[in-house]
Write a structure and sequence with these properties.
2 domains, six-stranded mixed beta barrel, elongated
């Protein structure tokens, strides 16, 4: 005889046509419920991963993972600091910069952060060169007095490439005619769009030597570092602080932008819990299916018991049958979820074109498309969670079946 007996009988019950079609219908609903729940969970988690990756790419493309700055406003002996940073294993590149606040005037006026950079170094530590809408960073040559503006900043100032803006430095210069504010006219040579309001509306970049002249500084105010992995920023920052000593301050992107990613991580956890409850409800529909099946199979259970089947064997029969239904639902859900997550951006774009709607307007949202990023680790955890729920759902009906007394079950047969 086929062994184990519980698996053999459970498979026979699964393949056999049931006399009670209502039980078959409930079983089908249970499988579809699990499939829909797993599909929705995979799709939603993939969208959350997509937003997380998109924000991470945009933010970390504009900021340095680790920054070295001077405690008194400028970095002393900055070549030494660069050499120390380059000696660490996870540091890919370093770029000095000068950064101060200023007041810009075009057709209109607005305050912004002016960052003096060396374009050749800047492209190694940030992606701003890839975010250029007009012009290029290479136009920021020493003595050119060119300036690159964020897209929203240029719009607020009412200027475009080729126009002039006047930069007012919040410092007073003493002249023979008295104290006057320091100012300089710049030519707009480029516009970038980072996709983050903080930078698009409040950042302008000029050449570092021009910035030193404008602010009358002899060196950079900081050094920006690019790492091979952004989550090593804290480790690298701690090592730098120990090696550089008290004349330097070290900060990381986690210090200023961690709230973005903590919020997304929290939303992802909340959505996972909510949708997991939906999967749990769908899985526990198996309870009603198996309870009705146990009632329908009372005579069969009694015959198995009189033939020597133990309560554990009878319990295994219905665990096997319930798990087969659960596994079919999980397999369908994983297949549907993976296909939906992979094709979700294309599906959303098709719906938008078909009905002439825009779910994420670029005038309102910086991320105007629906990102989706499938991670197989999440798929595995979701499938395992649904499997556990399905297993738990089979225990009570299987236990009820194992408690069946043959004499009572066969009394009216």
């Amino acid at each position: 005889m086929f062994r184990p007996l519980s698996l053999f009988v459970g498979l026979r019950y699964t393949r056999a046509k049931r006399r009670n079609r209502f039980i078959s219908f409930i079983s089908l609903v249970s499988m579809l419920g699990i499939a829909v729940g797993v599909t929705a969970l995979i799709a939603v988690i993939s969208v959350m991963n997509g937003f997380d990756h998109e924000l991470r790419d945009r933010i970390l493309g504009m900021v340095a993972e680790t920054t070295i700055s001077g405690v008194d406003g400028s970095v002393r002996d900055w070549p030494h600091a660069v050499r120390v940073a380059d000696s660490l294993p996870h540091v890919i590149a370093a770029a000095p910069y000068v950064e101060h606040e200023a007041y810009l005037r075009g057709q209109r006026s607005q305050g912004a952060v002016i960052r003096g950079i060396e374009p050749a170094y800047e492209n190694k530590v940030t992606n701003i060169g890839k975010r250029m809408v007009q012009g290029s960073l290479s136009s920021l040559t020493p003595g050119s007095w060119n300036i690159v503006l964020g897209r929203d900043l240029a719009l607020s100032l009412g200027v475009t490439v080729g126009d002039h803006v006047v930069v007012f430095v919040p410092e007073i210069s003493a002249t023979p005619i008295g104290a006057i504010p320091r100012l300089r006219s710049f030519t707009v040579s480029g516009i970038f769009g980072a996709g983050i309001e903080q930078y698009d509306a409040g950042l302008a970049e000029i050449n570092m030597q021009d910035a030193q002249k404008l602010y009358q500084q002899s060196g950079p105010t900081g050094i920006r570092l690019k790492l091979d992995h952004p989550f090593l920023a804290y480790q690298v920052g701690r090592e730098l602080a120990q090696k550089l000593g008290g004349l330097y301050a070290v900060s990381t992107w986690m210090d200023s932008h961690s709230n973005f990613f903590k919020a997304i991580a929290m939303e992802k956890k909340v959505m996972f819990i909510i949708l997991s409850l939906i999967v749990a409800v769908a899985a526990f529909n198996l309870v009603s299916t198996l309870v009705m099946l146990v009632t329908d199979k009372q005579a069969d259970i009694a015959i198995l018991r009189t033939m020597g089947a133990t309560p554990r064997t009878v319990m295994g029969v219905f665990v096997v049958q319930g798990m087969i239904s659960g596994l079919i639902g999980i397999a369908l859900g994983v297949l549907g979820g993976v296909l939906l997550a992979i094709n979700l951006p294309a599906i959303v774009d098709g719906i938008q074109r078909l009905f002439h709607v825009q779910f994420l307007s670029p005038d309102v949202y910086y991320i105007s498309n629906l990102p989706s990023r499938l991670e197989w680790r999440d798929v595995g955890w979701i499938a395992l969670l649904a499997f556990v729920f399905s297993m738990l759902a089979t225990l009570y009906p299987a236990w009820r079946a194992s408690r069946t007394q043959p004499a009572e079950a066969l009394r009216y047969e």
